[in-house]
Amino acid sequence: MLILLLPYNTVYADEYVDHLIDIANHKKLDESRAWRALLHYKPGVINSWVSQADDTKFFLAKDGNINPQAELHATIQAIAESLPDSDQHSQCRFPARYYWLVNALKIDQKKILPVKCAKLDQWFDTIKPGSLSLIFPSAYVNSPSSMFGHTLLRVTPNDHRANAPLVAYALNYAADADATDNSLVFSIKGLIGGYPGIFSIVPYYEKLKEYSDIENRDVWEYSLNFSKAEVDQLMRHAWELQYINFDYYFLTENCSYHMLSLMEVARPELDLTDQFDVKAIPSDTVRAVINAGLVTKRNYRAASTTILTQHAKQMSANDNKLVIDISRDLTTVEKINNLDKTKIEKARIYEQAYDYSRFLSTSDPTVRDARAKTNWELLAARSKIETDGFEVWLPVKKPDVRVEDGHRTGRIALGLGEQGGDSYVNLKLRPAYHDVVDKVSGYSRGAQINFLDFELRYFNEDEKLRLQKFTAINVLSLTPRDRYFLPISWGIDIAVERQPTRNSVTNAVQAVVDFGVSKDLYNYAVISLMAELDMKVASKFEKGHSVGAGAVISLLIQESSYSLLSSLRSVYFELGEKNLHQQFDVAYGYHFSFNDSLRITYIRSRDYDIYSNDIQLTYQRYF
Predict the structure, then answer these.
(1) Are strands 505-521 and 525-537 parallel, antiparallel or unpaired?
(2) By percentage, how much of the chain surpasses pLDDT 90?
(3) Of the candidates 248, 273, 301, which is a domain's last residue?
(4) Domain check: are 462 and 596 in the same one?
(5) How many C-alpha atoms does 26 have within 13 Å on its Cβ side?
(6) Quick one: CA dihedral 413, 416, 417, 423, positive or negative?
(7) What is the value of pTM for the model shown?
(8) Per residue in 17-34, pLDDT tens?
(9) What three-state secondary structure class fits 22?
(10) Domain count, the chain
(11) pLDDT exceeds cutoff 80 at 575
(12) Which of 251, 276, 301 is where one domain is finished?
């Protein structure tokens, strides 16, 4: 008989594998939350289940991406293969699956021998994972990949490095974007899954430097209550995901979503990713983690610009001027030594000048060598000052409201209004994220991002429901300039909007770009002056388009309980359909809770020498 020609242990192993598959089928392990988390299965449209992993290397069965049971059977067979110790063995390639199956099936490791995984063991020995923290660098409007913020996991070792979080590791997921792609290309490809998303693990201080020093973003750290065994399982899965591609989607399968998917591998009973089928905004995912009871402690790390700004407020105008003069080589450290100032005042000048010099070097590495001599002189001068035990600076003030406590990012608004003597009912739905008339607490002051915002309007006189505006993307950054920082304020609005023409009204595609400067007024208001370029395309326009340029001046007031934005705009359209568009508008929002507000808007506009008024009262609910 053929069976007599096979080695006895091979026959025995095959029988044992069949036995394990029978047990797996009986227990319906392929339907378990743990197995679906390990393979990233989600309900499909055509197939019952589809893995979000988009790489054939991640599957052992031919149809493993859509067949959880086939992939489970193939994995059991693969981990039982009697092969020499090798990092390519399935036990080493997929250690999280192997570990889970050993426990779920009570595998006899005398019948299926453990394989020595040298590279995996060395990786674990280097990282020595002990605990996890969720890291949230705040929104950074100037980068499309981070305009909503970002999340990653910090893996803190369980050795002597446990109390030194800067030498921990960062587990990150991001789009593997082409470095030559500009912001517009990145946004479009990111929306349609045009980039592969990859997992990586790097030293935490590198990511912290990138976010806090280079991109000037405040960072929130949330310690998580995962056990050592759960952390180890998450890290085994992180090993499995190395070099595995997932299609990256800017609004859904993004960094924040996949941090949640990793947590579900560590603790399968968690229900996190299912909450974010439509959008996964970082601040919303942080709330989900907190609501799941995973957070034990919060820590705030201020960005370098935040620290410099707060320290500047503790110094006199003259001392701040001296700091700037040092940076511009208009004065020397020796001259400041001879000034009649207190020890604290001199210490502040030296420290602020050194920190500002480091900021300038980070922003422009070419000045680093040129500043080296002055930086050394500043440190030397500071080291000679004894402050008699007094703290040089007041503690850095944390934001009054944490990011997770701000308003929800979805918004539905129902309004009543009147335009040109005709009353109307207005409905708006915005999936993300925040505009400057929303409650500012928990968000960046002067920053606005509206995404996929629909506005429908029903006029009572003609009894018609019309699309008033569809905003593909609207971004506004009104960052005030001061003696230390000179940012450019800018905005972009790409939309389809109902527009007047010379003889009628039509829906026009428009792209508006603004750029200019902003200035603080009395610490609670921002005034901005910006140039504007405006292009509109519609069949009813002369030559099918209208292109113009002009200017806009605006005043923004943002307080905890209310917000106000008023602007005066004048744009002359010279190319295509000619028109002088002038507009005065004001929007006032009263926030009677974090997720409820009333807004009143008034618009007075002039087109083709015809004036019109539009006034509207809206109730807004954030969800």
Answers:
(1) antiparallel
(2) 78
(3) 301
(4) yes
(5) 8
(6) positive
(7) 0.88
(8) 999 999 999 999 999 999
(9) helix
(10) 4
(11) yes
(12) 301
